Amino acid sequence: MNKAFPETFLWGGATAANQYEGGYAEGGRGLAASDMITAGSYTSSRKIYFTDANGKMDHITLGESLPLGAEPILKEGEYYPSHNATDFYHHYKEDIGLMAEMGFNSYRLAISWTRIFPNGDEEEPNEEGLQFYDDVFDECLKHGIEPIVTILHFDMPVGLAKKYGGWANRKMIDFYLRYSEVLFTRYKSKVKYWITVNEINVLGGFWTLGTYKKDDAKTENKGPILPTKYLPEEAAGKYQALHHLMVACSYANKLAHEMIPDVKIGTMLALSGIYPNTCHPDDVFGAYLFRRRALLFSDVMMRGYYPAYAKSIFDEYDFELKMEDGDEEILKNHPSDYLAFSYYRTTVYDRNSDITTTTGGQQGQANPYLEKTPWGWPIDAKGFRFVLNELYDRYQKPLMCVENGMGNIDTIEDGKIHDDYRIAYLRDHIAAMRDAVTNDGVDLIGYMPWGCIDLVSAGTGEMKKRYGFVYVDLDDAGKGTFNRIKKDSFYWYKSVIASNGSEL
Protein backbone atom coordinates (compact mmCIF):
# COMPACT_ATOMS: atom_id res chain seq x y z
CA MET A 1 0.00 0.00 0.00
CA ASN A 2 1.19 3.50 -0.81
CA LYS A 3 1.94 5.90 1.97
CA ALA A 4 -1.09 7.82 3.19
CA PHE A 5 -1.50 11.38 4.36
CA PRO A 6 -1.49 12.38 8.04
CA GLU A 7 -4.62 11.39 9.95
CA THR A 8 -5.40 15.08 10.49
CA PHE A 9 -5.36 15.82 6.75
CA LEU A 10 -8.31 17.90 5.54
CA TRP A 11 -10.12 16.52 2.48
CA GLY A 12 -12.86 18.58 0.90
CA GLY A 13 -13.76 20.98 -1.87
CA ALA A 14 -14.00 24.70 -2.54
CA THR A 15 -16.51 27.25 -3.86
CA ALA A 16 -17.00 31.03 -3.96
CA ALA A 17 -20.17 32.92 -3.12
CA ASN A 18 -20.21 34.96 -6.35
CA GLN A 19 -20.03 31.80 -8.50
CA TYR A 20 -22.10 29.39 -6.43
CA GLU A 21 -24.36 30.98 -3.83
CA GLY A 22 -26.96 32.92 -5.83
CA GLY A 23 -29.85 34.59 -4.00
CA TYR A 24 -28.33 37.92 -4.99
CA ALA A 25 -31.37 40.02 -4.01
CA GLU A 26 -32.65 37.87 -1.14
CA GLY A 27 -32.17 38.07 2.60
CA GLY A 28 -31.27 41.76 2.62
CA ARG A 29 -28.18 41.28 0.47
CA GLY A 30 -26.73 44.29 -1.37
CA LEU A 31 -25.10 44.48 -4.79
CA ALA A 32 -21.54 43.30 -5.30
CA ALA A 33 -19.42 44.19 -8.32
CA SER A 34 -19.66 40.55 -9.45
CA ASP A 35 -23.43 41.03 -9.77
CA MET A 36 -22.79 43.62 -12.48
CA ILE A 37 -20.83 41.23 -14.76
CA THR A 38 -22.57 39.71 -17.77
CA ALA A 39 -22.05 36.20 -19.07
CA GLY A 40 -19.58 35.54 -21.88
CA SER A 41 -17.41 32.91 -23.45
CA TYR A 42 -14.03 34.26 -22.38
CA THR A 43 -12.77 36.90 -19.97
CA SER A 44 -12.69 39.87 -22.34
CA SER A 45 -16.27 39.25 -23.51
CA ARG A 46 -17.77 39.69 -20.04
CA LYS A 47 -18.99 43.26 -19.57
CA ILE A 48 -19.80 45.71 -16.80
CA TYR A 49 -22.22 48.36 -18.09
CA PHE A 50 -22.30 51.89 -16.74
CA THR A 51 -23.64 55.33 -17.46
CA ASP A 52 -21.00 58.04 -17.61
CA ALA A 53 -21.19 61.50 -16.09
CA ASN A 54 -23.32 62.64 -19.07
CA GLY A 55 -25.75 59.75 -18.78
CA LYS A 56 -24.39 57.87 -21.81
CA MET A 57 -24.21 54.07 -21.50
CA ASP A 58 -20.92 52.28 -22.11
CA HIS A 59 -19.10 49.24 -20.73
CA ILE A 60 -15.77 47.93 -19.48
CA THR A 61 -14.51 44.34 -19.38
CA LEU A 62 -13.13 42.34 -16.47
CA GLY A 63 -10.11 43.84 -14.75
CA GLU A 64 -10.68 47.38 -16.01
CA SER A 65 -11.53 50.31 -13.76
CA LEU A 66 -14.60 52.49 -14.21
CA PRO A 67 -14.19 56.10 -15.36
CA LEU A 68 -14.65 58.75 -12.69
CA GLY A 69 -18.29 59.68 -12.32
CA ALA A 70 -19.53 56.42 -13.84
CA GLU A 71 -22.57 54.67 -12.41
CA PRO A 72 -22.51 50.84 -12.79
CA ILE A 73 -25.87 49.53 -13.99
CA LEU A 74 -27.67 46.29 -14.75
CA LYS A 75 -28.60 46.35 -18.44
CA GLU A 76 -32.01 44.99 -19.36
CA GLY A 77 -31.87 41.88 -21.49
CA GLU A 78 -28.42 40.78 -20.32
CA TYR A 79 -27.82 37.58 -18.35
CA TYR A 80 -25.93 37.99 -15.07
CA PRO A 81 -24.70 34.55 -13.92
CA SER A 82 -23.99 35.47 -10.28
CA HIS A 83 -27.62 36.35 -9.59
CA ASN A 84 -28.65 32.72 -9.29
CA ALA A 85 -25.28 31.01 -9.85
CA THR A 86 -25.98 27.35 -9.01
CA ASP A 87 -28.22 28.33 -6.11
CA PHE A 88 -26.45 27.11 -3.00
CA TYR A 89 -28.62 29.66 -1.19
CA HIS A 90 -31.63 27.38 -1.58
CA HIS A 91 -29.78 24.05 -1.86
CA TYR A 92 -27.22 24.29 0.94
CA LYS A 93 -28.58 21.38 2.97
CA GLU A 94 -28.69 19.11 -0.07
CA ASP A 95 -25.22 20.19 -1.20
CA ILE A 96 -23.59 19.80 2.19
CA GLY A 97 -25.26 16.39 2.44
CA LEU A 98 -23.59 15.42 -0.84
CA MET A 99 -20.24 16.64 0.49
CA ALA A 100 -20.75 14.54 3.60
CA GLU A 101 -21.59 11.51 1.47
CA MET A 102 -18.25 11.91 -0.29
CA GLY A 103 -16.57 11.95 3.11
CA PHE A 104 -15.53 15.60 3.25
CA ASN A 105 -14.08 16.67 6.59
CA SER A 106 -13.60 20.24 5.33
CA TYR A 107 -15.28 22.71 2.99
CA ARG A 108 -13.74 25.95 1.79
CA LEU A 109 -16.41 28.57 1.14
CA ALA A 110 -16.60 32.34 0.86
CA ILE A 111 -18.90 34.73 2.66
CA SER A 112 -20.61 37.39 0.59
CA TRP A 113 -19.65 40.76 2.12
CA THR A 114 -22.87 42.38 0.89
CA ARG A 115 -24.97 39.73 2.60
CA ILE A 116 -23.50 40.97 5.90
CA PHE A 117 -23.16 44.69 5.07
CA PRO A 118 -25.33 45.43 2.01
CA ASN A 119 -23.53 48.68 1.12
CA GLY A 120 -20.33 47.94 3.01
CA ASP A 121 -20.28 50.97 5.31
CA GLU A 122 -23.31 50.38 7.56
CA GLU A 123 -22.81 50.59 11.31
CA GLU A 124 -24.80 47.42 11.98
CA PRO A 125 -24.76 44.13 10.05
CA ASN A 126 -27.68 42.43 8.33
CA GLU A 127 -29.00 39.80 10.74
CA GLU A 128 -30.68 37.76 8.04
CA GLY A 129 -27.36 37.36 6.26
CA LEU A 130 -25.57 36.39 9.44
CA GLN A 131 -28.23 33.79 10.19
CA PHE A 132 -27.85 32.24 6.74
CA TYR A 133 -24.18 31.49 7.38
CA ASP A 134 -25.00 30.28 10.89
CA ASP A 135 -27.29 27.76 9.25
CA VAL A 136 -24.63 26.77 6.71
CA PHE A 137 -21.95 26.27 9.36
CA ASP A 138 -24.32 24.33 11.60
CA GLU A 139 -25.13 22.03 8.70
CA CYS A 140 -21.41 21.51 8.02
CA LEU A 141 -20.60 20.78 11.65
CA LYS A 142 -23.55 18.39 11.92
CA HIS A 143 -21.81 16.30 9.24
CA GLY A 144 -18.32 16.63 10.73
CA ILE A 145 -17.20 19.10 8.08
CA GLU A 146 -14.75 21.83 9.12
CA PRO A 147 -15.63 25.19 7.49
CA ILE A 148 -12.67 27.00 5.98
CA VAL A 149 -13.93 30.51 5.38
CA THR A 150 -12.66 33.10 2.90
CA ILE A 151 -13.53 36.61 4.06
CA LEU A 152 -13.03 38.36 0.70
CA HIS A 153 -13.34 36.38 -2.54
CA PHE A 154 -13.80 38.57 -5.66
CA ASP A 155 -16.59 40.34 -3.77
CA MET A 156 -16.34 44.13 -3.84
CA PRO A 157 -19.49 45.88 -2.52
CA VAL A 158 -20.74 48.27 -5.19
CA GLY A 159 -21.59 50.74 -2.44
CA LEU A 160 -17.97 50.98 -1.29
CA ALA A 161 -16.69 51.25 -4.84
CA LYS A 162 -19.05 54.07 -5.75
CA LYS A 163 -18.72 56.06 -2.55
CA TYR A 164 -15.03 55.60 -1.75
CA GLY A 165 -13.34 54.31 -4.91
CA GLY A 166 -12.67 50.87 -3.47
CA TRP A 167 -9.30 49.74 -2.17
CA ALA A 168 -7.53 52.81 -3.54
CA ASN A 169 -8.97 54.51 -0.45
CA ARG A 170 -7.48 53.69 2.98
CA LYS A 171 -10.93 53.94 4.51
CA MET A 172 -11.50 50.45 3.11
CA ILE A 173 -9.27 49.09 5.88
CA ASP A 174 -11.79 50.17 8.51
CA PHE A 175 -14.76 48.75 6.60
CA TYR A 176 -12.99 45.43 6.08
CA LEU A 177 -12.07 45.23 9.77
CA ARG A 178 -15.62 45.99 10.87
CA TYR A 179 -16.80 43.21 8.58
CA SER A 180 -14.10 40.81 9.86
CA GLU A 181 -14.83 41.59 13.51
CA VAL A 182 -18.52 40.83 12.99
CA LEU A 183 -17.60 37.48 11.41
CA PHE A 184 -15.12 36.56 14.13
CA THR A 185 -17.58 37.53 16.86
CA ARG A 186 -20.49 35.63 15.37
CA TYR A 187 -18.71 32.47 14.22
CA LYS A 188 -15.75 32.09 16.58
CA SER A 189 -17.17 28.87 18.03
CA LYS A 190 -17.86 27.41 14.58
CA VAL A 191 -14.95 28.43 12.35
CA LYS A 192 -11.29 27.85 13.20
CA TYR A 193 -9.75 28.24 9.72
CA TRP A 194 -9.96 31.61 7.96
CA ILE A 195 -8.53 33.01 4.71
CA THR A 196 -8.34 36.80 4.58
CA VAL A 197 -8.47 37.25 0.79
CA ASN A 198 -8.64 35.11 -2.33
CA GLU A 199 -5.85 35.19 -4.94
CA ILE A 200 -4.57 38.62 -3.96
CA ASN A 201 -1.94 38.56 -6.72
CA VAL A 202 -4.53 38.58 -9.54
CA LEU A 203 -6.82 41.32 -8.23
CA GLY A 204 -7.35 44.38 -10.39
CA GLY A 205 -9.96 46.83 -11.65
CA PHE A 206 -13.54 47.54 -10.60
CA TRP A 207 -14.62 43.90 -10.19
CA THR A 208 -12.21 42.97 -7.41
CA LEU A 209 -10.72 46.25 -6.14
CA GLY A 210 -13.58 48.67 -6.84
CA THR A 211 -11.23 51.13 -8.53
CA TYR A 212 -12.00 54.07 -10.80
CA LYS A 213 -9.75 55.61 -13.46
CA LYS A 214 -8.26 59.01 -12.83
CA ASP A 215 -8.61 61.59 -15.56
CA ASP A 216 -4.87 61.53 -16.19
CA ALA A 217 -4.55 57.74 -16.01
CA LYS A 218 -1.63 56.35 -17.96
CA THR A 219 -2.58 54.08 -20.84
CA GLU A 220 0.88 52.77 -21.69
CA ASN A 221 1.88 49.41 -20.26
CA LYS A 222 5.54 49.90 -19.42
CA GLY A 223 6.21 46.46 -18.04
CA PRO A 224 4.84 43.06 -17.13
CA ILE A 225 3.03 43.69 -13.86
CA LEU A 226 0.88 40.72 -12.91
CA PRO A 227 -1.50 40.16 -14.54
CA THR A 228 -0.76 42.62 -17.34
CA LYS A 229 -3.81 41.87 -19.45
CA TYR A 230 -6.27 42.64 -16.67
CA LEU A 231 -4.69 45.78 -15.18
CA PRO A 232 -6.33 49.15 -14.80
CA GLU A 233 -4.31 51.79 -16.65
CA GLU A 234 -2.60 52.93 -13.46
CA ALA A 235 -0.33 50.15 -12.31
CA ALA A 236 0.76 52.31 -9.39
CA GLY A 237 -2.84 52.60 -8.23
CA LYS A 238 -3.14 48.83 -8.19
CA TYR A 239 -0.09 48.40 -5.96
CA GLN A 240 -1.25 51.10 -3.55
CA ALA A 241 -4.72 49.54 -3.37
CA LEU A 242 -3.22 46.11 -2.70
CA HIS A 243 -1.03 47.60 0.03
CA HIS A 244 -4.16 48.85 1.78
CA LEU A 245 -5.65 45.37 1.43
CA MET A 246 -2.57 43.67 2.86
CA VAL A 247 -2.53 46.04 5.82
CA ALA A 248 -6.22 45.25 6.38
CA CYS A 249 -5.44 41.52 6.25
CA SER A 250 -2.69 41.91 8.84
CA TYR A 251 -5.05 43.75 11.18
CA ALA A 252 -7.55 40.94 10.65
CA ASN A 253 -4.84 38.41 11.56
CA LYS A 254 -4.25 40.29 14.80
CA LEU A 255 -7.96 40.51 15.54
CA ALA A 256 -8.56 36.82 14.87
CA HIS A 257 -5.82 35.75 17.28
CA GLU A 258 -7.22 38.04 19.96
CA MET A 259 -10.77 36.78 19.57
CA ILE A 260 -10.66 33.09 18.58
CA PRO A 261 -8.82 30.38 20.54
CA ASP A 262 -6.61 28.11 18.40
CA VAL A 263 -7.46 30.06 15.25
CA LYS A 264 -5.51 29.58 12.02
CA ILE A 265 -5.74 32.48 9.58
CA GLY A 266 -3.92 32.56 6.26
CA THR A 267 -3.65 34.43 3.00
CA MET A 268 -4.30 32.98 -0.46
CA LEU A 269 -2.63 33.40 -3.86
CA ALA A 270 -2.95 32.04 -7.39
CA LEU A 271 0.32 30.15 -7.65
CA SER A 272 0.25 27.91 -10.67
CA GLY A 273 3.81 27.36 -11.91
CA ILE A 274 6.06 28.92 -14.52
CA TYR A 275 8.96 27.42 -16.48
CA PRO A 276 11.61 29.01 -18.72
CA ASN A 277 11.09 28.10 -22.37
CA THR A 278 14.77 27.20 -22.79
CA CYS A 279 17.95 27.18 -20.76
CA HIS A 280 18.90 30.54 -22.28
CA PRO A 281 19.75 32.78 -19.32
CA ASP A 282 17.19 35.40 -20.39
CA ASP A 283 14.43 32.77 -20.37
CA VAL A 284 15.52 31.41 -17.01
CA PHE A 285 15.90 34.77 -15.30
CA GLY A 286 12.81 36.16 -17.04
CA ALA A 287 10.71 33.33 -15.63
CA TYR A 288 12.23 33.99 -12.22
CA LEU A 289 11.33 37.68 -12.38
CA PHE A 290 7.76 36.93 -13.41
CA ARG A 291 7.39 34.47 -10.57
CA ARG A 292 8.50 37.08 -8.05
CA ARG A 293 5.65 39.35 -9.17
CA ALA A 294 3.24 36.86 -7.66
CA LEU A 295 5.39 35.89 -4.69
CA LEU A 296 5.76 39.56 -3.75
CA PHE A 297 2.35 39.38 -2.07
CA SER A 298 2.97 36.15 -0.17
CA ASP A 299 6.42 37.46 0.82
CA VAL A 300 4.70 40.43 2.49
CA MET A 301 1.88 38.44 4.08
CA MET A 302 3.96 35.44 5.17
CA ARG A 303 7.24 37.16 6.12
CA GLY A 304 5.86 40.49 7.25
CA TYR A 305 7.77 42.93 5.07
CA TYR A 306 8.29 44.06 1.48
CA PRO A 307 11.25 42.26 -0.11
CA ALA A 308 14.12 44.27 -1.55
CA TYR A 309 13.14 43.37 -5.12
CA ALA A 310 9.79 45.18 -4.73
CA LYS A 311 11.56 48.48 -5.40
CA SER A 312 12.62 47.39 -8.89
CA ILE A 313 9.01 46.48 -9.73
CA PHE A 314 7.68 49.78 -8.40
CA ASP A 315 10.37 51.72 -10.25
CA GLU A 316 9.05 50.42 -13.57
CA TYR A 317 5.96 52.52 -12.97
CA ASP A 318 7.60 55.51 -11.28
CA PHE A 319 5.64 54.45 -8.23
CA GLU A 320 6.49 55.19 -4.62
CA LEU A 321 4.52 53.19 -2.07
CA LYS A 322 2.77 55.39 0.49
CA MET A 323 3.15 53.96 3.99
CA GLU A 324 1.26 55.32 6.98
CA ASP A 325 2.48 55.15 10.57
CA GLY A 326 1.93 51.65 11.87
CA ASP A 327 1.80 49.90 8.49
CA GLU A 328 5.23 48.30 8.74
CA GLU A 329 4.59 47.31 12.35
CA ILE A 330 1.28 45.55 11.68
CA LEU A 331 2.70 43.69 8.67
CA LYS A 332 5.73 42.58 10.67
CA ASN A 333 3.99 41.53 13.86
CA HIS A 334 0.95 39.78 12.39
CA PRO A 335 1.86 37.66 9.37
CA SER A 336 -0.32 34.85 8.07
CA ASP A 337 -0.28 31.48 9.85
CA TYR A 338 -0.39 29.48 6.63
CA LEU A 339 -0.39 29.98 2.87
CA ALA A 340 -3.43 28.87 0.92
CA PHE A 341 -3.07 28.72 -2.84
CA SER A 342 -4.66 27.62 -6.09
CA TYR A 343 -2.88 25.36 -8.55
CA TYR A 344 -4.31 24.47 -11.96
CA ARG A 345 -1.47 24.42 -14.49
CA THR A 346 1.94 25.68 -15.48
CA THR A 347 2.92 28.19 -18.12
CA VAL A 348 6.11 28.92 -20.06
CA TYR A 349 8.10 32.16 -20.21
CA ASP A 350 9.66 32.86 -23.62
CA ARG A 351 11.93 35.88 -23.94
CA ASN A 352 11.03 36.19 -27.64
CA SER A 353 7.28 35.90 -27.33
CA ASP A 354 4.73 38.70 -27.46
CA ILE A 355 2.32 36.57 -25.43
CA THR A 356 1.84 37.95 -21.96
CA THR A 357 2.95 35.50 -19.29
CA THR A 358 1.43 35.64 -15.84
CA THR A 359 2.61 33.74 -12.82
CA GLY A 360 -0.88 32.57 -12.03
CA GLY A 361 -0.55 30.61 -15.25
CA GLN A 362 -3.28 32.37 -17.21
CA GLN A 363 -1.26 32.79 -20.39
CA GLY A 364 2.08 31.87 -21.83
CA GLN A 365 3.85 29.90 -24.51
CA ALA A 366 2.56 26.40 -25.27
CA ASN A 367 4.45 23.58 -23.56
CA PRO A 368 4.93 20.77 -26.13
CA TYR A 369 5.36 18.19 -23.37
CA LEU A 370 1.92 18.69 -21.82
CA GLU A 371 -1.65 17.85 -22.77
CA LYS A 372 -4.31 20.54 -22.40
CA THR A 373 -7.87 20.87 -21.18
CA PRO A 374 -10.61 21.97 -23.63
CA TRP A 375 -9.93 25.54 -22.46
CA GLY A 376 -6.23 25.26 -23.32
CA TRP A 377 -4.88 24.90 -19.79
CA PRO A 378 -1.80 22.65 -19.64
CA ILE A 379 -2.16 19.59 -17.40
CA ASP A 380 0.94 19.26 -15.24
CA ALA A 381 0.81 17.12 -12.09
CA LYS A 382 4.59 17.21 -11.63
CA GLY A 383 4.33 20.99 -11.65
CA PHE A 384 2.03 20.70 -8.63
CA ARG A 385 4.71 18.85 -6.69
CA PHE A 386 7.25 21.45 -7.82
CA VAL A 387 5.09 24.36 -6.58
CA LEU A 388 4.38 22.66 -3.25
CA ASN A 389 8.12 22.30 -2.67
CA GLU A 390 8.84 25.81 -3.95
CA LEU A 391 6.41 27.38 -1.50
CA TYR A 392 7.35 25.28 1.51
CA ASP A 393 11.07 25.84 0.90
CA ARG A 394 10.44 29.57 0.71
CA TYR A 395 8.25 30.05 3.79
CA GLN A 396 8.60 26.97 6.03
CA LYS A 397 5.00 27.45 7.10
CA PRO A 398 2.03 25.14 6.54
CA LEU A 399 0.37 25.17 3.12
CA MET A 400 -3.21 24.49 2.07
CA CYS A 401 -4.25 23.80 -1.53
CA VAL A 402 -7.70 25.34 -1.71
CA GLU A 403 -8.21 25.15 -5.48
CA ASN A 404 -7.21 22.51 -8.01
CA GLY A 405 -9.01 20.85 -10.88
CA MET A 406 -9.86 20.97 -14.57
CA GLY A 407 -12.70 22.70 -16.35
CA ASN A 408 -14.34 20.36 -18.84
CA ILE A 409 -17.55 19.74 -20.77
CA ASP A 410 -19.65 17.01 -19.14
CA THR A 411 -22.25 15.02 -21.06
CA ILE A 412 -25.20 13.19 -19.50
CA GLU A 413 -25.59 9.64 -20.81
CA ASP A 414 -28.55 7.65 -19.49
CA GLY A 415 -28.72 9.92 -16.48
CA LYS A 416 -25.01 9.52 -15.67
CA ILE A 417 -21.84 11.54 -16.20
CA HIS A 418 -18.74 9.52 -17.03
CA ASP A 419 -15.90 11.97 -16.32
CA ASP A 420 -12.83 9.75 -16.57
CA TYR A 421 -10.81 12.80 -17.72
CA ARG A 422 -11.46 14.52 -14.38
CA ILE A 423 -10.59 11.41 -12.41
CA ALA A 424 -7.32 11.06 -14.34
CA TYR A 425 -6.40 14.71 -13.72
CA LEU A 426 -7.13 14.54 -9.99
CA ARG A 427 -5.55 11.12 -9.54
CA ASP A 428 -2.25 12.36 -10.97
CA HIS A 429 -2.33 15.58 -8.96
CA ILE A 430 -3.16 13.85 -5.68
CA ALA A 431 -0.34 11.36 -6.32
CA ALA A 432 2.07 14.26 -6.89
CA MET A 433 0.77 15.97 -3.76
CA ARG A 434 1.25 12.78 -1.78
CA ASP A 435 4.87 12.57 -2.98
CA ALA A 436 5.43 16.16 -1.86
CA VAL A 437 4.07 15.35 1.60
CA THR A 438 5.44 11.85 2.24
CA ASN A 439 8.72 11.99 0.31
CA ASP A 440 9.66 15.68 0.30
CA GLY A 441 8.43 16.63 3.78
CA VAL A 442 6.05 19.42 2.73
CA ASP A 443 3.70 20.46 5.54
CA LEU A 444 0.33 20.45 3.79
CA ILE A 445 -2.82 20.94 5.87
CA GLY A 446 -5.42 19.97 3.31
CA TYR A 447 -6.69 19.67 -0.24
CA MET A 448 -9.90 21.25 -1.57
CA PRO A 449 -10.53 20.77 -5.32
CA TRP A 450 -12.27 23.68 -6.99
CA GLY A 451 -15.98 23.79 -7.71
CA CYS A 452 -16.73 20.51 -5.95
CA ILE A 453 -20.35 21.06 -6.95
CA ASP A 454 -20.66 22.70 -10.37
CA LEU A 455 -20.58 26.50 -10.38
CA VAL A 456 -20.27 29.38 -12.83
CA SER A 457 -16.80 30.07 -14.26
CA ALA A 458 -15.31 33.27 -12.82
CA GLY A 459 -13.41 34.15 -15.96
CA THR A 460 -15.87 33.24 -18.69
CA GLY A 461 -19.26 33.21 -16.94
CA GLU A 462 -19.99 29.83 -18.50
CA MET A 463 -21.66 26.79 -16.97
CA LYS A 464 -20.34 24.35 -19.55
CA LYS A 465 -16.85 24.78 -18.07
CA ARG A 466 -17.46 22.40 -15.19
CA TYR A 467 -15.20 21.34 -12.33
CA GLY A 468 -17.44 19.51 -9.89
CA PHE A 469 -18.02 16.00 -8.62
CA VAL A 470 -21.73 16.87 -8.77
CA TYR A 471 -23.44 18.07 -11.94
CA VAL A 472 -25.90 20.97 -11.71
CA ASP A 473 -28.57 21.12 -14.43
CA LEU A 474 -28.00 24.65 -15.74
CA ASP A 475 -26.82 25.99 -19.08
CA ASP A 476 -24.84 29.05 -20.15
CA ALA A 477 -28.06 31.08 -20.49
CA GLY A 478 -29.14 30.29 -16.93
CA LYS A 479 -31.81 27.79 -17.95
CA GLY A 480 -32.26 24.48 -16.15
CA THR A 481 -33.78 22.70 -13.18
CA PHE A 482 -30.80 23.12 -10.79
CA ASN A 483 -31.08 19.37 -10.11
CA ARG A 484 -27.93 17.73 -8.77
CA ILE A 485 -26.48 14.57 -10.38
CA LYS A 486 -23.50 12.62 -9.04
CA LYS A 487 -20.69 12.13 -11.56
CA ASP A 488 -18.40 9.10 -11.68
CA SER A 489 -15.75 11.28 -10.02
CA PHE A 490 -18.07 11.61 -7.00
CA TYR A 491 -17.69 7.94 -6.19
CA TRP A 492 -13.99 7.93 -7.03
CA TYR A 493 -13.21 10.88 -4.74
CA LYS A 494 -15.27 9.24 -1.99
CA SER A 495 -13.00 6.18 -2.15
CA VAL A 496 -9.87 8.35 -2.16
CA ILE A 497 -10.98 10.11 1.01
CA ALA A 498 -11.98 6.83 2.65
CA SER A 499 -8.43 5.54 2.11
CA ASN A 500 -6.91 8.88 3.23
CA GLY A 501 -5.26 9.15 -0.17
CA SER A 502 -3.53 5.78 -0.10
CA GLU A 503 -5.74 4.30 -2.84
CA LEU A 504 -6.10 6.34 -6.01
Give the strand content: 5-15%
Q: CATH superfamily, please?
A: Glycosidases
**CATH class category:** Alpha Beta
**What's the story with the biggest beta sheet?**
8 strands, parallel
Helix content: 25-40%
| Gap from first CA to last CA | 11 Å
What is CATH's topology name? Answer: TIM Barrel
Shape: globular
| Average pLDDT over all residues | 92
Label the structural class. alpha/beta
CATH architecture: Alpha-Beta Barrel
Strand order of the largest sheet: 1-17-14-12-10-8-7-6
User: Got a strand count?
Assistant: 19
pLDDT below 50 for ≥5 consecutive residues: which ranges?
216-233
- Please count the helical segments: 14
Structure commentary:
- With 504 residues, the protein is of the alpha/beta class.
- The chain has a single domain, classed as Glycosidases (TIM Barrel), CATH 3.20.20.
- Helices cover 35% and strands 14% of the residues.
- The chain is built from 14 helices and 19 strands.
- It has helices at 17-20, 88-102, 113-116, 127-142, 158-164, 171-187, 205-209, 235-259, 281-303, 310-315, 327-333, 381-395, 420-438, 488-498, and strands spanning 10-11, 47-51, 57-61, 66-67, 71-72, 106-110, 146-150, 193-195, 212-213, 264-270, 273-276, 339-342, 346-349, 399-403, 412-413, 416-417, 444-447, 470-472, 484-486.
- The strands form six sheets. The chain has an eight-stranded parallel sheet with strand order 1-17-14-12-10-8-7-6.
- Strand 2 (47-51) and strand 3 form a beta hairpin.
- Helix 6 runs parallel beside helix 8 (235-259), helix 8 crosses helix 11 and helix 12 (381-395) runs parallel beside helix 13.
- The radius of gyration is 21 Å and the shape is globular.
- The termini are close together.
- Mean pLDDT is 92; it is low at 216-233.
